[in-house]
Every structure is written in C-alpha cells, then in structure tokens.
Amino acid sequence: MASILEMRSFVAVVEAGSFVGGAAAVGLSKQAVSSHVAELERRLGVRLLHRTTRRLSLTEGGQVFFARARELLDEMDRLEADVSSGSAEPAGLLRINAPLTFGILHLAPLWGRFAKLHPKLSLQVDLSDRLVDLIEEGYDLAVRISDLASSTLIRRKLAVTRLLLCASPGYLKAAGRPTTPADLKGHAMISYAYLMTGEEWSFTSPRGGAVRVRTDARLHTNNGDTCRAAALDDQGVVMLPDFLVAGDIRQGRLVELMPAYKGPEIGIYAVYPSRQYLPVKTRYLVDYLASAFASPAWQDP
C-alpha cells in the first residue's frame, strides 16, 4: 500500500510540475508528498527527480519509472472502474474535441461503430486546432497531438506520428533535391503555424545528434491540409505528420526528403480532466480509441 501511495505522489508531482501542485492533486500535504518521493528514491536506490529552486526535471531513471508507473496506475484505475461500474451501460452525451485534419482523416470513420456499440450514447464532436480548455468549455475528452510535457491533464497514449520532410516531384525537378538540413537554405518553405518548434525545424542526424534549421517560409498557414495542398502544387518543401502525407509518399505524389535525418516523433493522446471517478462513458471511449489505433493505418507499409 505504501509503495502505491509513493508512486501516486511521484506521478502527481511530475504531472503537476511541482510538489505543491502534486500535493493538491492527490489531496495530501506538500510535506507528505515530498516524503513519499524521497522514500521511493531511497527504496529504489536511484534519484528520480532533479530539484532546483525554479523547476523539477526527470532524471533518465525517473523518465523510465514515470512512464511505467503512470501505465500501472492507469490500469489500476481502469480495473477499479470496471469493478465499481459493474455492467453499467454508458449513456448520455459525450463532448469530444479533436484536431481538424486528424479528426477528418482518422477519427471520423470511427464514430459510427462506437455509436452502434453504445446506442444510449450521443456524441458531440468538435474539430478545431485551437487548444481548448476541457474543464472551462465542458469537454469530456480531447484528442491531442503533442508532447504534453507541461500538461496537468490525465492522458493515455493512442499512437505516435512522425513529422516527415517532403516535396513534390515537380518542385524537386525545378529546384533540386536537398540531401542535408543545410541544403534547405534557399528553398521555398511551407510553414505550419502550430508546429511545436515554430520556424525552427529540428532533425535527428544519422549519428544521433540534434540538427536545427531556421526556416524562412514563403507560405504560413494554421491548417495542415493547406500545407499539403501547397506542397502538391509544387510550391515548396513542407514538414507534416505521416498521418497526413504517408499516402501521398506511397503513391508518388510527394517525395520524402533526407530520410536519414529523422523528424520529431509526437504522441497522439486521449486526454481528460481527472483520473478519479472517470465516467463510464469516457472510459469506454478511451478504451475504444486505444484499440482502434493499436495499429495505425498510416504506418502500414
């Protein structure tokens, strides 16, 4: 029992980004939570957190332990919910928010089957690339494509997507084909406004080091479909998630550039406000989405 409390305290501190926030999340004092984390580190014989006056950060061992601990706690909570809810059938309204392009391409085909499985549920699906406040705006669940490093929301990873650098054969015929990040200078660039790294595009080199390139885009847009359309129209080089362009690359409409230089990998998550007393309807949807994306279609060879 003590080890579970220590684990919950540690996960809460990491998710909140502070001992004060973690203590509030688990309903304990800051001193109790700090003691739990210290005892956990003592028992494991490894430091889990770097502590400074300004911030907390995970050690390498802490990253491994946090990922596994959160999975275990989520599984425990789902088990308790299964037992407590019994055979309760989900009912009522589910309000869902999701990114526009991903929602159209990969979520829209799923809603019909989920509705048939649970006829007492009704769905309200809002698509927007704007970052909504789940609690303030009354959403039960959101699908987010992000690293969620600073998020205090509860999350369950559904899949991953990798950003791919690509351009059309027509553009490459006219402008030449870049083979290293340095070659991008002078190329026409198409920029997605919500890219986490902004105008600085990052890659992992074949040797494992980070390579960053400052771009000067000729086209800026806050919509991935517009970026894709411009690239297909021979307008320049674009960096977009594989869930959007993998089909174009397979069919030759776009060409992946510099495949030895890997673009960032980003998690796709179901997020919801609270782990405690998760409504049956939300839990059923989270489990359904996790099953649906166990083998993402865009990763098919």
Describe this structure in words.
- The structure is a single chain.
- By secondary structure, this protein is of the alpha/beta class.
- It has three domains: 2-85, Arc Repressor Mutant, subunit A, CATH 1.10.10.10; 92-158 and 266-299, D-Maltodextrin-Binding Protein, domain 2; 161-265, 3-Layer(aba) Sandwich (D-Maltodextrin-Binding Protein, domain 2), CATH 3.40.190.290.
- The chain contains ten helices and 13 strands.
- The protein has helices at 2-16, 19-26, 30-44, 60-85, 100-117, 134-137, 169-175, 224-232, 242-250, 280-292; strands at residues 49-51, 56-58, 92-98, 121-127, 141-145, 154-167, 189-192, 200-204, 210-214, 219-221, 237-241, 255-256, 265-272.
- The strands form three sheets. Strands 3, 4, 5, 6, 7, 10, 11, 12 and 13 form a nine-stranded mixed beta sheet that branches. It has a two-stranded antiparallel sheet with strand order 1-2.
- A hairpin with a 5-residue loop joins strand 8 (200-204) and strand 9 (210-214).
- Helix 1 (2-16) crosses helix 2 (19-26).
- The radius of gyration is 22 Å and the shape is globular.
Strands, helices and their partners?
Blueprint: H1 2-16, H2 19-26, H3 30-44, E1 49-51, E2 56-58, H4 60-85, E3 92-98, H5 100-117, E4 121-127, H6 134-137, E5 141-145, E6 154-167, H7 169-175, E7 189-192, E8 200-204, E9 210-214, E10 219-221, H8 224-232, E11 237-241, H9 242-250, E12 255-256, E13 265-272, H10 280-292
Parallel strand pairs: 3-4, 3-5, 7-10, 7-11
Antiparallel strand pairs: 1-2, 5-13, 6-11, 6-12, 6-13, 8-9
Defining traits:
301 residues, single chain, D-Maltodextrin-Binding Protein, domain 2, nine-stranded mixed sheet
